[in-house]
Design goal:
CATH architecture of the largest domain: 3-Layer(aba) Sandwich
CATH class of the largest domain: Alpha Beta
Strand order of the largest sheet: 6-5-7-4-8-10
CATH topology of the largest domain: D-Maltodextrin-Binding Protein, domain 2
Number of domains: 2
Number of strands: 10
Structural class: alpha/beta
Number of helices: 12
Distance between the termini: 37 Å
CATH superfamily of the largest domain: Bacterial extracellular solute-binding protein, family 7
């Protein structure tokens, strides 16, 4: 079978996906073989959904926020929400209601969502210059994807969406001034310390990231029930295995990044507050204008309020 991880070659995420694929082969007694491929090896990175739809790929991972052009802003909510659900909360919400919403949204794309990978908060932003206040965002050229891109634009930045490989090259050539890709462990694994001087931590911009485990519908329907059950349940385990792996990777990456000469700091509170304030307005406006966004966001907020009214945070 043909499978592609959307992330860059050698990245922590592709390693996590490859481990899942190898475990499936063992658990299936060799019935399920999927040699690993990284972003761009089979289909261009970030368009894995089209590869699934067209039957070029049997299995793939991606970020749902790459689909803004076809589904509108609701797609971003499945990856993350600014100041939104924590990793554990997002993992549970996807099991409770999120997967059904996602399946409904993509009903015309010949895809089955068996589950998804869960991971840690991302870097707030990484740049070539120091950031002290919201005013320092103005004029920067930044790589990001998702709702924060719109907010960075409102704050005066110029925003583009690029693959991991394109991001590195663009920073090296001075085409962009900063970027957001993933967490410290991921960014270290793709050597982003070579092209920036400042890496800013903080969970507000992206408290977590959920990335789907997608199957071509024809491929999925060809599996016997025992294999489908194995894939789903092992997918849940893979999500938590990857989450644990990335927690440990991030803890190791911070001192390693500092040793490479990068300034690793928490984002100034004034910038974080500006992001949260603008996000609240953005989500309110989208809820009023887009019924699908409103349905998904309302579900997320209801779950968040119930959980945090019980445990404060999970």
């Amino acid at each position: 079978m043909v499978a592609q991880c959307h992330a860059g070659a050698g990245s922590t995420f592709c390693k996590g996906v490859a481990e899942y694929q190898a475990n499936l082969e063992i658990a299936s007694g060799g019935r399920l073989k999927m040699p690993p491929h990284s972003g761009g090896e089979i289909v261009p990175s970030m368009v894995e959904l089209d590869g699934i739809k067209d039957g070029v790929l049997d299995f793939a991972t991606t970020c749902t926020m790459y689909w803004m052009d076809r589904f509108g802003p609701a797609c971003n909510l499945f990856t993350f929400q600014i100041a939104g659900l924590s990793p554990t909360e997002q993992f549970f919400w996807m099991q409770n209601e999120g997967l059904a919403f996602l399946q409904e949204m993509c009903k015309d794309y010949n895809v089955y969502f068996a589950g998804g990978f869960e991971t840690v908060p991302e870097m707030f932003i990484s740049t070539k210059k120091a950031l002290k206040s919201p005013a320092d965002i103005r004029g920067l050229k930044l790589r990001t994807a998702g709702d924060d891109g719109k907010i960075f634009t409102e704050m005066g930045a110029s925003v583009v969406t690029l693959s991991t490989e394109e991001t590195y090259e663009s920073l090296m050539r001075g085409v962009i001034d900063g970027y957001q890709l993933s967490s410290p462990g991921y960014d270290y694994s793709v050597k982003m310390y070579e092209v920036v001087d400042y890496m800013y931590l903080g969970p507000v911009r992206q408290p977590q990231e959920w990335q789907p485990q997608m199957w071509n519908m024809k491929t999925w329907n060809s599996f016997p029930d025992d294999m489908k059950k194995m894939i789903i349940e092992m997918g849940k385990a893979a999500a938590m295995n990857y989450y644990r792996f990335m927690v440990n990777s991030d803890l190791a990456a911070i001192p390693a990044l500092k040793a490479k000469g990068v300034n690793v700091e928490f984002i100034p509170q004034s910038i974080a507050d500006e992001m949260v304030s603008r996000a609240a307005k953005l989500y309110a406006d989208r809820s009023a204008a887009d019924p699908l966004f409103n349905k998904v966001y309302t579900s997320i907020q209801n779950f968040k309020n119930i959980v945090r009214g019980t445990w404060q945070r999970m």
